[in-house]
Amino acid sequence: MKSVTKNTSGGFTLVEVLIVVAILGILAAVIVPEYRNYTQKAKESAAKENLQILRTAIERYAIEHDGVPPGYPNDDLSYDPTYPTFVLTMARKSYLSALPENPFNNKLDLLMIKDDELFPSDATGEHGWVYQPYTKTVKLDWVSTDSEGFKYYDY
Question: With 0-12 CB in 10 A as exposed, 13-18 as middle and 19+ as buried, what is 10?
Fold first, then answer.
């Protein structure tokens, strides 16, 4: 008598593969939004920290230079402030080793607002930071709102 043997290769059936793919899809649908939320919050924290670093360095410089904030050539308020002067004066005595990066647009540059100009009412996202030496105001140049609905520009 002949014996009948079933040929089993040990592979997965199509139904088993579809079930695994469906489970992976469900997990991805749950995990991806959470991951995006964490990266958003990390950028928000970095932005706040970088603003604090800039504001502290600007205030420290002004205190040590008889109230003159960084950006004015030779600390003379009769000149218009410039970006290159800001960078040089901040690096001269190690107030900042480098401008911190805007974590949203990865820009390091600073839009310098002159004394007689109004501070922009809104961000453009074209620069890393917006700074007016006369008022010692520095803001993050990013147009969106954070996870709690606050404008980044108003940090």
Answer: exposed
Q: What is the residue-averaged pLDDT of the chain?
A: 90
Q: With contact defined as beta carbons under 8 Å apart, do 75 and 128 qualify?
A: no
Residue 36: the pLDDT is 73
Query: How many whole angstroms separate alpha carbon 51 and alpha carbon 140?
Result: 7
C-beta atoms surrounding 53 within 10 Å: 14
- How far is it, in rounded angstroms, from Cα 130 to Cα 126? 10
Is the predicted pLDDT of residue 4 greater than 80, yes or no? no
**Contact predicate 140/102, CB 8 Å:** yes
Say which amino acid occupies 103: P
pLDDT digits 0-9 by tens, 85-119: 999 989 887 899 889 999 999 999 999 999 999 99
CA distances from residue 109 to 9, 65, 96, 106, 112 in whole angstroms, order as listed:
63, 23, 14, 10, 9
Report if pTM > 0.90: no
Tokens at residue 54, please? Answer: 């800039």
Q: What is the largest CA-CA distance in the chain?
A: 111
